[in-house]
Amino acid sequence: MSGINLHRRYGQVLLNNRGIAIREADTLGLGAGSHVLEIGPGTGILTQVLLERGLKVTAVEADHNMYDEIRWKFQKFVESGQLVPVKQDFLEFQAGEYDGIIGNIPYHITSQIVFRLPEFRFRRAVIMVQREFAERMVAAPGSRDYSRLSVSVALRFNARIEKIVARKYFRPVPKVDSAIVSLQPRETPVDMAAVEKVIQRAFSMRRKKLGNIFEGCPQEYAELRPDQISPEAFLDLASRLTGLSPRGHP
Ligand SMILES: C[S@@+](CC[C@H](N)C(=O)[O-])C[C@H]1O[C@@H](n2cnc3c(N)ncnc32)[C@H](O)[C@@H]1O
């Protein structure tokens, strides 16, 4: 591994197992010539596997040391145009269309990154996140982990935990395990911004009944709490509430 200094503020915990990087690339399932966006390449363990497969890689890295490292390490690929390193905060990176999105993403901004993904067009994303976060992403109604995140993810993606990755495969060794998650975009039939507002408000009062949270709440949902209804029911609820003000907020 490179002797480069690691920065906590960039969430720099580096994967040190090539087999796991290969597993992530396999899960992405794209062939030579496809264009992949990599979030946070770091010192390039995953970038290398992607480049070896003939994928075109745009790699967005916030830390200038890491950015310099991958430009130096993969100079040939940069010169040929197969690798386009971009030194930028991913949260400010312009959305666009890619065949796939991949990344062992910085854990301190995982939510923000996941909530930004729907701005991009892509066939499949494969991300490494903290295990607990992954479990909240795919949690089912009624479970302790079912949350705003689970509903938003389920309405936008077919999400799956592909593999739990033990903490020993990272340097420095973190306090938590990780998980590889795959995301395949779903068609969303309605304006998701309005749906998002309903989900957010509901889970900010997750112990209350929906009838006490939303004025004009349809009868069939009124006696249920937010964690008792499915993502599809949230879609239905939000569509039927559109135009109605949440209780106490005219
Ligand atoms: C968990 S490390 C993973 C590094 C490498 N992909 C690996 O697997 O070893 C996260 C990477 O994201 C970078 N990063 C942190 N915040 C970022 C941001 N806002 N935008 C883009 N990259 C960021 C870090 O500098 C670091 O390289």
Automatic annotation (TrEMBL):
Keyword Cytoplasm (UniProt): yes
Keyword annotations from UniProtKB, A to Z: Cytoplasm, Methyltransferase, RNA-binding, rRNA processing, S-adenosyl-L-methionine, Transferase
CC terms in the record's Gene Ontology section: cytoplasm
Compartments where found: Cytoplasm
Pfam family, one: RrnaAD
Protein task: Specifically dimethylates two adjacent adenosines in the loop of a conserved hairpin near the 3'-end of 16S rRNA in the 30S particle. May play a critical role in biogenesis of 30S subunits.
Family: Belongs to the class I-like SAM-binding methyltransferase superfamily. rRNA adenine N(6)-methyltransferase family. RsmA subfamily.
Protein name: Probable ribosomal RNA small subunit methyltransferase A
Species assigned in the record: Thermogymnomonas acidicola
Designated gene of the protein: rsmA
